[in-house]
Write a structure and sequence with these properties.
Blueprint lengths: L1 E9 L20 H15 L6 E10 L7 H14 L1 E12 L6 H9 L4 E7 L3 H7 L5 H13 L5 E7 L6 H14 L3 E6 L7 H4 L9 H17 L3 E4 L2 E3 L6 H7 L4 E4 L4 E4 L2 E4 L4 H9 L7 E2 L10 H12 L6 E2 H8 L3 H4 L3 H6 L3 E4 L2 E4 L1 H5 L1 H8 L5
Parallel strand pairs: 1-2, 1-9, 2-3, 3-4, 4-5, 5-6
Antiparallel strand pairs: 6-8, 7-8, 10-11, 11-12, 13-15, 14-15
Helix pairs in contact: 1-2, 1-10, 2-3, 6-8
Bound molecules: S-adenosylmethionine (SAM) and iron/sulfur cluster (SF4).
């Protein structure tokens, strides 16, 4: 049976953080219409995947933990009634401190959730305020401890670095504090200033760390996390042995997943599409029994990604992973040698930004730091 991931987008937040451009609204007005529409949509599409086994589910957002326990339960029930789940399905929900309660955690457990991803960002309360977060470090800690007390033994914590006025030492203190809590997984993202956010609008007034400081933060973060037992398996993701996120690995390994909700992306049968980031049009389409429009990423409806974009995309995604690209797997998949297709890789091997081990090509830590630039150099879009 073909294995498939499921992504459910929950487009609501208590308030928008100053840096975030994920699709979500800071209003709970349309929550119940959304849940009804989402469930109807899930039930209508699920028969397409009758021959698939769901081995990962990810509720992302927005803030899925903002949903009432009973609403979450309804969606989870609809999924279980509509799809075949594997016995060991990884089931993650993103949770924001300040929105988690014992009742919700117990409902998650009873509904099969076995992994929580909690957004912290930094342990410094002044920085949390500047970011527009709704919680303090103390409230994060309460949520984390409550989750442990309710039996969650697979927790990921989100951290961000290169924040305005942040020092290397502050990042270090945040990471040490997080490691002391011993979550199974840590995601640590470099702050990206997004145009349409509050930070995007005031970017000239933000005092952001220099590129050298950012580099020092990245390298010292990787070193510290490795020492504390978190193996880096992706540019921004670190896990204890066996605790890598199965669902997120699907994104980077070009494996298939189906998304539901406005802005959710899917990759099925070699086609990539997403639903428009528009809550009203999503709800309206379902309520009026229209098909929710799938927007295909190659710009043309129903066309497969062509051969060139498939190899480029494969390289781009796989190089995000520490294990990189196996030359044998590349050959088996595309019938071409990796270095013949992408000869510029050789220069980055020579300069220490990439390495080859056991037949696989991957970035070194300093290569990861400038991976966006290197990728644009090595991918040959004209061929
Ligand atoms: C969908 S949000 C997490 C879930 C939950 N809403 C929360 O904030 O706790 C996913 C994560 O992406 C990261 N993120 C969001 N916007 C970012 C940005 N502009 N730059 C870097 N990381 C960002 C944050 O670490 C955030 O926790
Ligand atoms: S970081 Fe999380 S809580 Fe903040 S706006 Fe984005 S999705 Fe919402």
């Amino acid at each position: 049976m073909k294995q498939l991931g499921l992504y459910i987008h929950v487009p609501f937040c208590k308030q928008k953080c100053n840096y975030c451009d994920f699709y979500s609204c800071a209003s709970s007005e349309r929550v119940s219409s959304y849940i009804n529409a989402l469930i109807t949509h899930i039930k209508a599409e699920a028969p397409l995947y009758r021959d698939c086994e769901i081995d990962s589910v990810f509720f992302g957002g927005g803030t899925p933990s903002l949903l009432e326990a009973s609403d979450f339960e309804r969606i989870a029930e609809a999924l279980k009634d509509s799809f075949n789940f594997s016995n060991d399905c990884e089931f993650t929900i993103e949770a924001n401190p300040g929105t988690i309660s014992r009742e919700k955690l117990i409902t998650y457990k009873n509904s099969g959730v076995n992994r929580l991803s909690i957004g912290l960002q930094t342990t410094f309360d002044d920085k949390l305020r500047e970011l527009g977060r709704i919680h303090t470090y103390g409230e994060f800690l309460e949520s984390f401890n409550l989750a442990r007390a309710c039996g969650f033994d697979n927790i990921s914590v989100d951290v961000m670095y290169s924040l305005p006025n942040q020092t290397v030492d502050e990042l270090f203190q945040t990471l040490v504090t997080v490691c002391d809590l011993s979550p199974e997984h840590i995601s640590s993202y470099c702050l990206k200033i997004e145009e349409k956010t509050v930070f995007g609008k005031i970017k000239d007034t933000l005092s952001l760390p220099s590129e050298d400081t950012e580099y020092e933060m990245y390298i010292s973060m990787c070193t510290l996390l490795e020492k504390r037992g978190y193996k880096q398996y992706e540019i921004s993701n670190f896990a204890k042995a066996g605790r890598e996120s199965r669902h997120n690995l699907k994104y980077w390994q070009s494996e298939e997943y189906v998304g539901f909700g406005p802005s959710a992306h899917s990759y099925v049968n070699g086609k990539r599409y997403y639903y428009s980031p528009n809550l009203s049009s999503y709800i309206n389409s379902v309520e009026q029994s229209k098909t929710v429009e799938k927007i295909y990423e190659d710009g043309e409806n129903e066309h497969n990604l062509d051969e060139i974009s498939q190899t480029d995309e494969y390289v781009m995604l796989k190089l995000r992973l520490s294990k990189g690209i196996s030359e044998d797997e590349f050959f088996a998949r595309f019938g071409k040698h990796l270095l013949e297709k992408y000869p510029k890789i050789t220069a980055y091997l020579d300069s220490g930004y990439m390495k080859k081990s056991n037949g696989s090509y991957s970035f070194t830590p300093k290569g990861f730091f400038v991976s966006n630039y290197i990728l644009t150099e090595i991918l040959n879009f004209d061929n």
